Amino acid sequence: MMRQTKISYKLFTFVFTILLLLNTYITKSLAEQKPTIVATTGMIADAVSNIAEDSVEIKVLMGSGVDPHAYRQTRSDIVTLANADLVLWNGLYLEAQMEEFLLELGNERPVIAVAEEVPNNLLISSDDYDGRFDPHLWMNPSIWSLLVLNVRDSLIKIHPEAKTKYTDNAKLYLAEIEQLGSYAKKVLGSVPEKNRILLTSHDAFNYFGQAYDFEVIGIQGISTESEAGLKRMSELVDLIIEKNIKAVFIETSVSDRNIRALVEGAKARGHAVTIGGELYSDAMGEPGSYEGTYIGMIDSNSTKIAIALGGNAPVSGLKNKLSLHKD
Ligand SMILES: [Zn+2]
Fold first, then answer.
1. For the chain, what are the domain ranges?
2. Which of 161, 208, 322, 325 could link 139 by a cystine bridge, Cβ 3.0 to 4.6 Å?
């Protein structure tokens, strides 16, 4: 009896070990088979992860707080990009310092500028670069939806066996984005018309302004590469006073120096203007947080802008997930 128990215990351990090894082997080989998708911005990576979930390996080059206009590929990015099955970038000169490199990489593997596939009649011309378009499409959820469709189609092309899953997931994600767009329209529409002026560090909000009927002013242009001169700063102080602007906004991916200088400049002339909050302009929040998703990013921006400029919005946002802190 004793002996039998011992043998069956040994047999059990043996079988268990084999199963464990088999499981590790299968998991590993599945992981190895997963296509690797590299996205330049977090917003594009968010679309990939909502559509493909864990059936692909996603790598994002520009994390939270990173300015895409100034970002240049690192040595490890080059290795990552060279091993990618698909590279998705925004394009329209957002990744200004990487454009040449990405275009060249496109001769070797699928490299797709997802914003450039959006019809030109929906794009806003760039004031900074003649003949180019403003790249900040994510600021209008309905235009961003078209880009999500481009992401979906690019994924299906490299992974056709997952077509049904990708199509279904994209549908769910697009429904969420639509709901986000209606929320933004509602809360921003509650801002009194005379207060609908959005003054930020750089011109990232033109699509936002067009969608929600706001006048948008950036201290710097569409790219963060240009320096704002003293003349520009003093003109903006004049404008803040003349239009009686109550709040201006800083951006997570751009230095807040200019905005703080404007607040000081207005104060020196007896006009109180506050900082209405920190907006996610060209990068999302920390990975793993709600603001580290596309929905959370736009929810946070719309809610903060609406509240700071005299509109009505729930402090916890669209999904009751925002933790708005005073800046
Ligand atoms: Zn920008």
1. 36-184, 192-326
2. 208
Question: Residue 1 Cα, ligand 1 centroid: separation in angstroms?
Answer: 76
Mind listing the pLDDT tens digit of every residue in the chain (327 residues)? 556 666 676 776 666 666 666 665 555 455 557 999 999 999 999 999 999 999 999 999 999 999 999 999 999 999 999 999 999 999 999 999 999 999 999 999 999 999 999 999 999 998 777 789 999 999 999 999 999 999 999 999 999 999 999 999 999 999 999 999 999 999 999 999 999 999 999 999 999 999 999 999 999 887 777 677 888 999 999 999 999 999 999 999 999 999 999 999 999 999 999 999 999 999 999 999 999 999 999 999 999 999 999 999 999 999 999 976 544
Q: Residues with beta carbon < 5 A to ion ligand 1? A: 204, 282
> From ligand 1's centre to the CA of 201, what distance in Å?
9
Q: How many Å lie between the centroid of ligand 1 and the Cα of residue 267?
A: 28
Q: Which of 318, 34, 326, 24 is nearest to 176 (CA)?
A: 318
192-326 belongs to CATH 3.40.50.1980: yes
CA distances from 134 to 62, 63, 69, 210, 308 (A): 19, 21, 12, 12, 26
Q: What angle do CA 290, 291, 295 make, to 5 degrees?
A: 80
How would you class 204 by CB atoms within 10 Å of its CB: exposed for 0-12, middle for 13-18, buried for 19 or more? buried
Greatest alpha-carbon span in the chain: 96
Query: Ligand 1 centroid vs 55 CA: distance in angstroms?
Result: 31
DSSP for residue 87: E
Same CATH fold, 192-326 and 36-184? yes
Rounded distance from Cα 192 to ligand 1 centre (Å):
27
Q: Which CATH class is domain 36-184?
A: alpha beta
In the reported structure, the alpha carbon of residue 27 is separated from the centroid of ligand 1 by a whole-number distance in angstroms of: 40
**Residues near 6 by Cβ (< 8 Å), separated by ≥ 6?**
none
